[in-house]
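FAQ: What does a multi-protein file look like?

Like this. Sequence, then tokens, then the next protein.
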Amino acid sequence: MRYFDDLFIWENINNVKQLRKFRKLVISYFTSVEYTRHGYKETSSSISLRENINLMIPKINVIMRQAHVSPSLLHRNPPAIGGGSTYINVVENIFNLHHFMGLGKEDVVDFVDKAIGVYLADQTKAKIRSLNPFFYLHLIIITIIKLPFFVIEKAGFNREKVESSIPGKIFTTIGTLLAYIWTLIQISEKLGFLTTIKSFLGLP
């Protein structure tokens, strides 16, 4: 997965657009339902909004993860049902929040706003990246290094778990470093600097 600081400006802008669309749908949904003593009930308009929200949730989860925003809150169960606590993803459980005391649509909107803030704060850097030819080279190198993890995912394993493991991080770091060194050597050779660099380092 490419995170917010590895995205082109047009990807950044699109993610902000998707987040704002989702935010608007969430607010519209909870405005359109009819509230009762036991929570709320659906209306014809809220049913349509609910479908659109559900369709967007997988994409919104990815966009938030790209922004390093985890929409999870610690919920403490009442002593009457055993107590204890668990983390609730408020985006994935947006239509079940009324079952968790203290959680509501405001929590969803807050996390969406945080993610929007991350992307907006990075837009100037995203514009610079998008015009930098070395950024494109960086993406090519990263893509090549990530190929083994893609194969692992296709084999049915958890790619993110393997990639975030210590061996996975070591492989990525060493592979990226070697790829950059090899690229630097190739560029130096094409520009005629390789002989000078070897001489400076005392290499044959």
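And here is the next protein:
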Amino acid sequence: MNAVEVLIGALVSALPVVLGGLVHIAFIKRRWLSSLAKRPLDGGLTVRGRRVFGDNKTVRGALVMIAATAVAAAVCAGFVGDHAVVVEQTASPWRWGTLLGVGYILGELPNSFLKRQLDIAPGAPAPRGTRALFWVLDQIDCLLGIVVVTAVAGAPLPVPVALMLIGVALVVHPTLAALMVLLGLKTRVG
């Protein structure tokens, strides 16, 4: 796999997730499916007296992110055609997009669980000694979920593509967070 194929593979993998995230932002901003936004993924369960994931991980977020990423992957596949180095590994772009969306959601959960157990409120900064660590985790947790889910599903990302995605994630994720701050959906970027 040459450098151009690696870059295309990373972009083909990242673009549906980015587009899915933008659709999710629209759902938040427009308050669409608001009843599902009130349903936390953890159902209010606690461990050691602390919420498992917190109120920010919702049924709406999971459903919208998975569905929007699947649709985005199908649309993107129509544009990239034979250059879809990564998509070719799976039965269909719809399946690939679903795997990306599921991986994205599942990748966020361990980080949220850890933060709740350390009494870091949803959306709040980590304590000074761990702030840099949690910033990096916040940027790549979803990517780690995508790598695991695609591997378990029998459609693993090629290692060079996964490594390229780390660089892409370290740029795209903070950029989208800045967009969310501008739209009033978040109070801070990192």
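Q: Is there any per-entry metadata?
A: Some entries carry free-text notes. For the entry above: The chain has one domain: 3-182.
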